[in-house]
Task: structure prediction
Amino acid sequence: MKFAGLPKADLILITDSHGDHHGPGFGFKDASQSGTEIWRRQRSSRLSPRRSPIANGETKKWQGWTIEAVPAYNLKRGPEPRKILSRQGGDYGYVLTYGGARFYFSGDTEGVPECGALKNIDVAFVCMNLPYTMPPEEAADAVKSDSPKVVIPYHYRGSESSAYFKRVAKAPRD
Result:
């Protein structure tokens, strides 16, 4: 990632263990400053002083924000047949709440039941990228139950995002 020249982060939330989400070449050095906190799942006890664990299902407070780690995983897809990329309990999405507004960042997930169980989401950032997350139609179905005010598809290289918008336009509204 290219973070040089951008404002430095105060907090970095890592969604999963795959190289496109963190790693030596990811750019944390360019993105962070001396006080930047980095939250991630705890895979080992060897966390650096700036890296703090957050557990799936855990809610923490940070500078006026409420941050919930929510499940992100695959039920049926992976890079090849019968190889699931992310198992249940391993990777995260996040719900961030600030000033009464709730923002959902799906992380790399399929349309798992926990997506549909989220409530009162104002803005949802939803991945749709096969074979690692979900196709556009599944992404639309995953957010239909809560009907966020705004949905921003991302991480959709190679997917046709118009299929998402067509599916959402046909969805009944409460």
About this structure: The chain is about 15% helix and 30% strand. The two ends are 40 Å apart (CA to CA). The mean pLDDT is 77. Helices lie at 28-31, 113-117, 136-144, 161-170.
